[in-house]
Amino acid sequence: MSVKIKRIYEDASKNDGKRVLIDRVWPRGVSKEKAQLDEWLKEVAPSSELRKWFDHDPDKFNEFKKKYKKEIKENQEQKDALDQLIKWSSKGNLTLLFAAKEEKYNHAQVLKKLIEKE
């Protein structure tokens, strides 16, 4: 099992395995064909309020991680979506796709760690 994270704007690879978009909003400028998605699991994404508060600010990342994990724990829809990602990762390679320009400080990093912890 391998969990990777990748910007949706990067080309698909044979090693990606199952490709899952984990953003709440469809990424600008990407056609469904180009995305080569297997799934779009928008329910696992942070709430709009949390996403806007965070705004990919590296100084807020530690607090964002705490709030996002708490949000997942308290929101059944997000929890179910995370459980689905865990199931898929146990069956082979899983690539979490996101649109943010910020590659180091984003929700994909948090999800990757949560999935690998399971």
Annotation field: number of helices: 5
By helix and strand content, what is the structural category? alpha/beta
Largest sheet, strands/sense/barrel: 4 strands, parallel
* Unreliable spans: none
Query: Could you tell me the radius of gyration in angstroms?
Result: 13 Å
DSSP helix fraction: 40-55%
Order of helices and strands: EEHEHHHEH
Would you report the number of β strands? 4
Shape descriptor: globular
Question: What is the rounded distance between the termini?
Answer: 12 Å
Describe the strand arrangement of the main beta sheet, using strand numbers: 1-4-2-3
User: DSSP strand (E) fraction?
Assistant: 5-15%
Protein name: DUF488 family protein
InterPro entries: YeaO-like
List the topology elements.
Blueprint: E1 3-7, E2 18-21, H1 32-35, E3 39-40, H2 48-54, H3 61-74, H4 76-90, E4 94-98, H5 107-117
Parallel strand pairs: 1-4, 2-3, 2-4
Helix pairs in contact: 3-4, 4-5
In short:
This protein has 118 residues and is an alpha/beta fold. The protein has 5 helices and 4 strands, in the order E-E-H-E-H-H-H-E-H. It has helices spanning 32-35, 48-54, 61-74, 76-90, 107-117, and strands at residues 3-7, 18-21, 39-40, 94-98.
